[in-house]
Amino acid sequence: MRSSISPRSCSNPGCRNSSQVICDCCNKYLCMEHLKDHAGRQSDSQLNSLISEINVLSDRFHHVSVVEPYFFKSLDKWRVDAYHTIDQFYETQRRNFEQFIRETEDKQRKEIDHFRLKINDFIREQNAKQDDLYLLKDTIKLIEKNLNDLPYIQCDIRPLVIDENLATIKFKKISQDVLPLSRPYQTMNIIDDSYCWMTTNDKYLLVHHKPDLYLLDQQLAIIEKTPWTHGRIYVMCWSSTLNRFIVITNDTIFTIDENLMAIERCDLNHHANIYHNWRSGTCSNTNLFLSTSELGSSLYEFSLLPSVQFIKEWTSPTTCRKDECIDDLCYKNGKFAIIIFHQPTNEIRLDLRSSTTLDPIWSIEIGRIVPRRTTGCCWLNNDEWLITDEYHFRLFHISTNGHLVKSDKYDPAPYNALLFGKDILAIRTVTGVNLHRL
Fold it and tell me: Which of the chain's ends, N or C, has fewer CB atoms near its CB within 10 Å?
């Protein structure tokens, strides 16, 4: 309540007394006689409102059930990935041990055969001297010792120690404050005409740095590199099902193991009229999706196991209108984020669609661009999205329900971006690769 020096009368019906206070809640002028009753009614009203609010929160509390399943899902995925890593290590070490045994046995066998031939030469030529006999005896003892040692080869394996801090539990905000980004903590310069696409398996980043494919860690240190001689790269993505990188040229799918040691070719020959100009692509848990470059873009779906096989083709107008084309495509959690370019107006928009039916969930206009300049789409935590706009040097943060959270300038011009692990954003620019911590 505030004191009143106004000559106004009390607001209570029928009261002619002069007002002495003003109610903070409703701004009514009151005399001292009616102040107590009015204050009591206001308190009761506010208390009842608070009771309603706490009842709503209590009801929400009893229906919240998304945290526990998500936590266990993440933990189960980590468990499967850990077993896979252990199995890979086991298979590698087993192959190394078997190869070591074979090489050791081959060496012993060759020494014995060589020694036998040498003795036969002495017998045939009858020219062995005493020193030769001493040397032969010493050699036999050495061969015998090596044979005696062979069953006692040891393999020292340290116990696998798991850091108890690998998993942490913490509250996370519903929406990240992604923009503006912090300064990049690592940068790699790529200023030649290398292909601008990149992909990640969360552990490593795969980029093209002419004339090679580079495998980079989260400090942009080069882990592996291999020459790339198979033509222009249109799409890069990672398949957790195959546990391999997928690289697409105009008419061929290549799969590459995560160490860049084996590149395998899969020809796209599902029918004679296959389109040979891809624009974008993405992987789900089981399938590969590729979009074409022309107006009225088509979307092709391929299975990954037991081999890469054509499944179906979506065409216009299901994919987009005849005067539109798909600029980029990203799959996550049963949904496609699709960047669509509208040629008559040079405008782009982001559509969120069902990955099984292409039915729209929501759509948001992004802006106007120069035709066919690079525009990319990247999934963020909490099912949010980041759009890169090369022409305007901009980034757009889109919420999970299709609203613009914020946009910001980004220099140098960004080609595309992706989430590298859980809290690192990798951005491919006209000058190279930048890593930002979120």
Answer: N
